[in-house]
Design a protein that fits this description.
The N and C termini lie far apart (37 Å). The protein is globular, with a radius of gyration of 15 Å. It contains two helices and five strands, in the order H-E-H-E-E-E-E. The longest helix has 14 residues. It is of the alpha+beta class.
Amino acid sequence: MAFTGHEDHTITLTDGANFTKAFRNNYSNQPKGIFFSKDTLQSILDQSDCVGIRFYFGLSTDSKLKLVFAGVTEDENDILEIIGDGGALCPPSCGNANSLNS
């Protein structure tokens, strides 16, 4: 199956809140989330033949959840020229409390 770049991966806030709450309940020692800048994401999306981004789960040397990501082509292959990581962890960078982070 080929990717188009137009797949809809949106969910409701209620579903998102339920997913993040279940994660926090099961992994309270892990970050709640990770922020990535628009510029980093856009630089990956701007690569030739990129139709989306794939996120991989990883662990840092202190056993904290990490996300490593790369652009993806329509034939589902990773573009390995720009690899993303290094986002700002929540906490401490969580912003105001809401149903996704509290």
